[in-house]
């Protein structure tokens, strides 16, 4: 009877501790997920190579992929594409580079594949995204209006 009470109390203690702590494995998985995310960010323009990632990070690729998935909800390739598309959006909005040059700058040397990927992720082809952003900016700031609320400086 007292052994059963002790066992029940110990069980209650484990149940209370489990959600708070999450276990050392969860913390390790989060750190590895962050490490994989940084690795991919630093190699944004390089071709994806699972074997190279495995060798450089010293973990089996499947484990790295599971940790990143827990951290971001994406596989390594999906995450890399997400980073590339985010950078491509910035380049499309801030430069007049042709789509093929934007594709190369973000690590996608095949412009046709890049355009398909961009369309799948964003819902628009890159040129339409750029045109839509520019027309939205024109509508928000008609000729003569200054985006910071003042008048444009006269020459």
Give a quick rundown of the structure.
With 155 residues, this protein is mainly alpha-helical. It has 8 helices and no strands.
Written overview of the protein:
The protein is mainly α. 73% of the residues lie in helices and 0% in strands. Helix 2 packs across helix 4, helix 2 crosses helix 5 and helix 6 packs across helix 7.
Work out the helix count: 8
- Taking pLDDT < 50 over at least 5 consecutive residues as the criterion, the unreliable ranges are 146-155
Strand content: under 5%
Distance between the termini: 93 Å
* Rg from alpha-carbon coordinates: 24 Å
Short descriptors:
single chain, 155 residues, mainly alpha, 8 helices, 0% strand, elongated, disordered C terminus
Q: What is the fold's blueprint, element by element?
A:
Elements: H1 2-21, H2 23-42, H3 50-57, H4 61-72, H5 76-94, H6 99-105, H7 111-122, H8 126-140
């Amino acid at each position: 009877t007292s052994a059963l009470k002790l066992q029940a109390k110990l069980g209650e203690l484990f149940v209370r501790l489990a959600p708070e702590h999450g276990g050392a494995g969860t913390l390790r998985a989060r750190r590895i997920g962050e490490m994989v995310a940084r690795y991919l960010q630093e190699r944004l323009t390089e071709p994806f190579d699972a074997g190279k990632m495995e060798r450089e990070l010293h973990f089996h690729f499947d484990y790295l992929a599971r940790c990143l998935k827990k951290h971001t909800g994406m596989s390594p390739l999906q995450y890399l594409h997400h980073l590339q598309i985010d950078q491509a959006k910035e380049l499309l909005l801030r430069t007049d580079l042709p789509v093929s040059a934007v594709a190369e700058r973000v690590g996608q040397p095949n412009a046709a594949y890049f355009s398909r990927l961009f369309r799948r992720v964003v819902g628009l082809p890159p040129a339409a995204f750029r045109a839509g952003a520019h027309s939205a900016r024109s509508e928000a700031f008609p000729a003569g209006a200054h985006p910071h609320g003042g008048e444009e400086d006269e020459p």
